[in-house]
Design goal:
2 strands, mainly alpha, about 130 residues
């Protein structure tokens, strides 16, 4: 990062902010990939052969624009637009995953409620 008498340059501050945002999106994409739902046909194989997924909690501070005067430099706008598209895609994927998790939880609760106490509950989806 280039610094002048007053600290980092305007462009460098924006590059740093975009780098930060990109790392956040990459972390979210990795978490989603690590917890991707398993398709019904391969559930048994996935459960037998897959290593357990242990995702570390992500605690990110809310983002705010860098404290610089002026708009984002023109040459960084395409990168920012692509990053925004990735953010939107991740937000969509998170919503889909949350809905799927909710459905799975409701099914598990219903199965547990209808089973006699202390009896394991299994669902054979391969048939």
């Amino acid at each position: 990062m280039h610094t002048g008498a007053d600290g980092p340059t305007w462009r460098d501050a924006w590059v740093s902010a975009l780098d930060e945002l990109e790392l956040s999106v990459e972390r979210a994409e990795q978490l989603l990939a690590a917890t991707e739902p398993v398709h019904a046909k391969s559930v048994h194989a996935e459960l037998v052969h897959a290593a357990p997924v242990h995702a570390a909690p992500v605690h990110a501070a809310p983002w705010s624009p860098p404290p610089v005067r002026g708009a984002m430099p023109e040459d960084l706008v395409p990168r920012a637009r692509l990053l925004h598209e990735r953010q939107l895609a991740v937000a969509h994927d998170i919503a889909v995953a949350a809905a799927a998790t909710g459905r799975q939880l409701r099914v598990a609760v219903r199965m547990r409620e209808t089973a006699p106490p202390d009896v394991p509950v299994y669902l054979d989806i391969t048939g």
